[in-house]
Amino acid sequence: MPDTVQCTIHGETQQAFVCSHLAEQSHGLGFNREDPSADDPFPDAWCDNCELIRATHDGWNDESEKLTTIKLLCSGCYERTRIRNTKPNVTLDDLAGLQWKCGSCEEWHTGPMLDVGFDSPHYWPEDHETGSRWTVLASGAIDSSCGTFLDADYCAVDNESFFVRGVLEVPIVGTGEDFRWGIWGSLSRVNFETLIRADHSGECIEKREMFSWLSTSIPNYSETLSLKMTVSIREPGWRPLFILERSDHPLAKEFYEGITPERVKEIMFRALPPQPE
Questions:
Q1: pTM of the model
Q2: How far apart are CA 102 and CA 111, in angstroms?
Q3: Cβ atoms 274, 100 nearer than 8 A
Q4: Residue 41 and which of 35, 68, 159, 199 are 20 to 30 A apart at CA?
């Protein structure tokens, strides 16, 4: 069994080692390593500056190792560091001065658009009245007499299907940024009521992870409906994060391997509302 490390973000995972520059909240520093193998899926990695040291001393040896510092990471943080520091052929730098008007808030923004949201889950009947969110009574019971409702955070359909709005953060290769999908995920009735009560009380809940099916048909991918997810509950006032289950679906691959700036540009320009002349 490989040596493991306990991470506050990723739990118990295989340990990995990187140079101290990569261990910080860095991006765009380069990511150098030997090819991963079945025996060593997370080989030691180092930035481009440390690569200059290695090359100058004809490899890693007693002399070159004196000039760099190695840090321990979990394999999950290692993969995130790899995504952040791999240098892509295309960057987002040329979008720094881009100005665009948001279709939701009607405000002008500058720079790349990295948030795309959906106002309702795929299963919401568009011709239905939005209704009112369930209320928590003084007794602690929930008034669910309005069996179908939709607001900015929650949705119920026919008192049978229940959804929460959250965020899927996809790391952008070579940057310190995420591309964020504001999407919907299904919940069991029990979990749905748990979140309604937590929102009402403003208190944290003990159950911080819940199973969900992705309930938004995201464009620019093959069908995304019913991909398996975990809902990671955050502090009161913050929408939950969605964690996709690993699979061969393109969205899952980008979630775990990163999305390229070129792909971000493609999605962004398709999603931008028509801009005034």
A1: 0.81
A2: 12
A3: no
A4: 68
pLDDT in tens, 25-52: 888 899 999 999 999 999 999 999 999 9
Query: Tokens standing for 161?
Result: 């299907």
Task: Tell me the C-alpha distance between 266 and 5, whole Å.
Answer: 38
d(CA 273, CA 277): 12
Quote the tokens at residue 220.
Answer: 């620019």
Torsion of CA 258, 259, 260, 265, to 10 degrees: -160
Give burial (CB, 10 Å; 0-12/13-18/19+) of 197. middle
C-alpha 271/C-alpha 219 separation (Å) is 9
Per the CB < 8 A criterion, the answer to whether 190 and 205 are in contact is no
List pLDDT tens digits, range 63-91.
Answer: 999 999 999 999 999 999 999 999 888 78
Please report, for residues 141, 150, 186, 225, the alpha-carbon distance to residue 159 in angstroms, rounded to integers and kept in the order given. Answer: 16, 12, 13, 21
Q: Which two tokens stand for residue 102?
A: 């948001």
